[in-house]
């Protein structure tokens, strides 16, 4: 099966509403993983192995969020237009232009 077929199967199997809930959950888990790394840095710990563990966790959560984002795009449609608008707006802000 292709990636898109698998994502569509998940939506059809669990339902769009359930996948929306999963999207929220995965975003929350990513936020928590990032906060754990920040807390690690803020507390002055200096352990490369522990740092790698936190970074690995963040990467896993990013993957989960990306999978759910891809499902949300299948449910709600492409976000290309909105992304392009927001990228151009960011570019203007970075150049110091008024938005």
Features:
99 residues, 84% helix, mainly alpha, single chain
Mean residue pLDDT: 96
Shape: flat
Strand count, sense and barrel status of the largest sheet are:
none
Secondary-structure-based class equals mainly alpha
Note the total helix count: 4
Distance between the termini: 44 Å
Q: Which regions are unreliable across 5 or more consecutive residues at pLDDT < 50?
A: none
The share of residues in extended strands comes to under 5%
Q: Report the strand count.
A: 0
Counted up, domains total 1
Rg is 18 Å
Q: Which percent bin holds the helix content?
A: over 70%
The SSE string, one letter per element, is HHHH
Short account of what is shown:
The protein has 99 residues and is mainly alpha-helical. It is built from four helices and no strands.
Write the layout of secondary structure elements.
Blueprint: H1 3-14, H2 16-42, H3 48-76, H4 80-94
């Amino acid at each position: 099966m292709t990636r898109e077929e698998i994502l569509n199967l998940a939506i059809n199997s669990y339902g769009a509403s359930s996948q929306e809930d999963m999207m929220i959950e995965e975003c929350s888990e990513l936020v928590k993983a990032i906060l754990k790394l920040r807390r690690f840095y803020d507390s002055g710990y200096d352990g490369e192995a522990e740092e790698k563990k936190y970074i690995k966790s963040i990467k896993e959560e990013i993957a989960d969020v990306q999978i759910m984002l891809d499902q949300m795009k299948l449910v709600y449609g492409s976000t290309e237009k909105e992304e392009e608008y927001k990228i151009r707006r960011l570019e203007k802000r970075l150049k110091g232009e008024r938005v």
